[in-house]
Amino acid sequence: MRIGLIGTGTIGGGVVEILETKAAQYREKLGINLELACICAKSDEEVAPYKAKGYKTTTDAMTMIADPTIDVVVELAGGYEMPRKWITTALENKKHIVTANKAMLAKYGHEVFPLAEKNNCHVLFEAAVGGGIPIIRSMQEGFVGSEVEQLSCIINGTCNYILSRMGESGMSFEDALKEAQLNGFAERNPTFDIEGVDSAHKTAILSSLCSGKYVDFEKIHVTGVAKITAEDISNAKELGYKIKLLGIYRRGEDGAVDARVHPCLVPNDHLLASVDGVINAVYLHCDNLGQTLQTGAGAGRLPTASAVVADLVSLARSTDTGSRKPLPMGWFNKENAAKLVPISETSSRYYLRFTTKDSFGVLASITGIFSQNEISIESIIQKDVKDPGKVSIVVISECTKESKMLTALEAIDSLSSVSEKSQMIRFLK
């Protein structure tokens, strides 16, 4: 199987390294021959080291894709528009695709997958979600005897590292982010990670696989972690919880899909609570299988490259025998779009933190607004803060519809005695 590789960055370089060390083993033990026929990058400087080693190289991806001897295009460049063009052109030329590009699949998968099905081509994307965790193959093949009822995932290593370090050391969000950047766990511009966009791409893909419907990542609720404070982390610890950024899928009524990304308070005895640092995890509850947890490196050069190579091996075995048809993904299209449950229609217990003036009647005003909105309170804790004349009030609500909670918080935030915008974090159900 002749491979055309686009992208020589962290993951692309890892793929070349693995193929160099294991290609002979694949020939001997699996009877397949993976030949890296051409390597493409955007500049001569980037391909120069590979050209020096004897590989055929190019800076023109479209020319490589047009080569009739190329069987599969591996897209590892990232981004939206150019990968979309490369992949659709390759599929029109009846070439198979392996990609790690979750952003492009989340945005344009509704074009890519039907086109692949039309041309009887494989599109494999294990490395797009969870790095080295084989969650895509598990959901497409391993869990077919069950239906996923719930999914909760820690799917961004940057955010998990930041929140873990805040919990371990008591440091601020800003300091934990700087540490993550110094250690190479966060980008120089971390916006996609800390604002939850990366998690939304992956959650949308997983929710689509769970539901058999096209889940549009641009329509799901997303809240990142930038507003989580050391105080919130400390309060959660006292309550017996950890704060994690979760991607969530729930099977709703009448085929509706509840898909969202936001911080959650996870109880210490939950399987996800022990997943710290840059490790990713996907927790599922299935009707026949019950509970299962898959964990592993969610990013990194070799873990992600390993997932790419695993897809190449699977593809080579399929195309060599000719007996394995591409997995059907044509249902991933706009005509089969999921009906999404609005976040306002969901229900949860809530952690709420208010910073108020230390004056008579403040607590009564807050509890009165909750009462007016038919919100029951489980507990209230009042704490001192560094600023003189102010207090921090932590409220834990009983299970409440989100629309009621948002109405109450809007009224509370408008009180003259409330100094800062309220903090709201949902509990994991």
TrEMBL record:
GO BP: methionine biosynthetic process; threonine biosynthetic process
Active site: 202 (proton donor)
Binding site for L-homoserine: 187
Domain of life: Bacteria
Name of a matching Pfam family: NAD_binding_3
GO molecular function annotations of the record: homoserine dehydrogenase activity; NADP binding
Catalytic activity, reaction form: L-homoserine + NADP(+) = L-aspartate 4-semialdehyde + NADPH + H(+)
InterPro entries documented for this protein: ACT-like_dom_sf, ACT_dom, Asp/hSer_DH_NAD-bd, HDH, HDH_cat, HDH_CS, NAD(P)-bd_dom_sf
Record bears the keyword Ubl conjugation: no
Chain residues that bind NADP(+): 6-13
Domain ACT: 351-426
NCBIfam families per UniProt: PRK06349.1
Similarity comment: Belongs to the homoserine dehydrogenase family.
Name this protein carries in UniProt: Homoserine dehydrogenase
Organism lineage: Bacteria, Pseudomonadati, Fibrobacterota, Fibrobacteria, Fibrobacterales
